[in-house]
Design a protein that fits this description.
The protein is mostly helical. Helices cover 75% and strands 0% of the residues. The protein has three domains: 85 residues, no CATH class; 130 residues, Leucine-rich Repeat Variant (Alpha Horseshoe); 121 residues. It binds 2-acetamido-2-deoxy-beta-D-glucopyranose (4 copies). One 2-acetamido-2-deoxy-beta-D-glucopyranose binds next to loops.
Length: 410
């Protein structure tokens, strides 16, 4: 029973929160019988997976007759109190109670019983219920994280439950305080282990959780890097599943963003070869390629702003050629992202104008200009115009860099 309740609790943290509010409102505002009906309606609506006959098995075992007679003989209130005192320690057990006591005929009987109470008795009972509800504790985010982590740490759990535990963590780690707690609770180790799971979906969601937890969070970035997870993520970047590679790249981007340690690890794990593979391969999903281009821009901008030049691949000629070649693809969005990347790369002192020249950047930009003028459909005209402005900017930067290069060469 405890396991079942924990599992349920871990499964639907958000709908449980919503339910708690409904339950609270229902019980405070209505006589108990109709409150129970409201709870059942809420369960049926909010928690669609619930199965009443299954839920009944979790009920406390007391039947309605017992409850009603207890109520009457003790003048009201005490039954509910007994139930609470006897272990309504969680929202789950309260729901079990509500569901277990929700037979419509019995509810009607109960409602009639409630109506027999005097206004004073009713008020008194509501006050008692209110007090009890205040004592009733909702599981905290930390509790929910512990449950999900314990599930991940249990090797005999089903794949479905493992996936669900990861998806809960995905939501739970969004607030920075929760992300900061993840490692203390053993969560990072558990999630990183699942990067090696035989199941693709599990690996994918694990990478997603790591990316979400480390986004704009230097503490978590460094914790994950400290566990050496980047090596595995770089390997996942080569995955044939676009979804898996995309989430791996998402996590990598989160880990290296504004983080020298992350960028050093990326370099030593040969992350540039993975990026090169994504950019240059025709079989790779274009959305993944766009993300890779975006990462390049991000890394170049960081290098530009920090003066740190720990990523030699950014000025590697073969790498630059892969980028320049992408400008010949007929995809405005991709072309725009690539132009942004080249613009940032041209500004780096570590890149050579002659390397761009040997990639034929001049004629590629010229052909792109022609294409942007002639090809776009009516609805793409405006966007094509913006991309063309960017193209001109890149062209000017390139010409300036070529002149600079000539000057230093003289
Ligand atoms: C509901 O639970 C009962 C008993 O546990 C089971 O026989 C039935 O198949 C379940 N229905 C659904 C829709 O899960
Ligand atoms: C691990 O999961 C299995 C299957 O759900 C369960 O029976 C078992 O009690 C769990 N073990 C722990 C330590 O929670
Ligand atoms: C995971 O399980 C192992 C034993 O199987 C235990 O030593 C460890 O503390 C558990 N970690 C967490 C986070 O529950
Ligand atoms: C990086 O990966 C490329 C392509 O797989 C490989 O040729 C190269 O040797 C690797 N370099 C290192 C330092 O591992």
């Amino acid at each position: 029973m405890a396991m079942a309740a924990r599992a349920r609790c871990s499964r639907q943290p958000n709908s449980h929160r919503l339910l708690a509010v409904v339950v609270l409102a229902a019980i405070l505002l209505l006589p108990v019988a109709s409150a129970a009906a409201a709870v059942v309606a809420a369960v049926a609506e909010g928690d669609g997976v619930e199965n009443r006959s299954a839920a009944r098995q979790w009920a406390t075992g007391k039947d309605e007759g017992e409850l009603v007679s207890g109520e009457e003989s003790r003048g009201g209130g005490s039954v509910v109190e007994d139930e609470f005192a006897g272990g309504f320690g969680s929202l789950d057990s309260m729901l079990q109670w509500a569901i277990g006591n929700s037979d419509p005929d019995k509810l009607k009987e109960q409602a009639e019983g409630v109506q027999k109470l005097s206004a004073d008795e009713l008020l008194k009972r509501r006050m008692e219920i209110k007090e009890l509800m205040e004592k009733l504790k909702m599981p905290s985010d930390a509790d929910l994280m512990k449950i999900a982590i314990a599930d991940l740490n249990n090797s005999s759990i089903s794949l479905e439950d493992r996936q669900r535990a990861l998806q809960e963590l995905l939501i739970l780690v969004e607030p920075i305080d929760n992300a900061n707690d993840l490692d203390k609770l053993g969560g990072l180790v558990a999630v990183i282990q699942d990067l090696n799971n035989a199941n693709e979906e599990i690996r994918t969601t694990s990478a997603w959780v790591l990316g979400k937890a480390s986004q704009n969070n230097a503490l978590v970035q460094n914790q994950i890097l400290g566990y050496g997870a980047l090596a595995r993520l770089v390997k996942m970047g080569y995955a044939t599943s676009a979804e898996e590679a995309t989430k791996a790249l998402y996590a990598i981007s989160a880990l290296v963003r504004d983080n020298i340690n992350g960028q050093e690890a990326f370099h030593s794990e040969n992350g540039s070869a993975m990026l090169q593979h994504i950019l240059a391969s025709n079989s790779v999903d274009v959305r993944l390629q766009k993300k890779a281009v975006f990462l390049v821009t991000d890394l170049a901008d960081f290098q530009l702003n920090s003066g740190n030049s720990g990523l030699p691949f950014l000025s590697d000629r073969i790498f630059l050629k892969s980028l320049v070649d992408m400008l010949s693809r007929f995809d405005l969005d991709l072309q725009e992202k690539v132009l942004l990347a080249i613009k940032s790369l041209l500004k780096l002192s570590s890149t050579e104008a002659t390397d761009f020249e040997s990639c034929d950047l001049s004629s590629v930009l010229y052909r792109l200009g022609v294409q942007l003028e002639e090809l776009p459909s009516e609805e793409q005209k405006e966007y094509a115009g913006e991309v063309d402005d960017l193209r001109r900017e890149v062209q000017i930067l390139f010409q300036d860099k070529l002149k600079e290069g000539t000057k230093t060469a003289l």
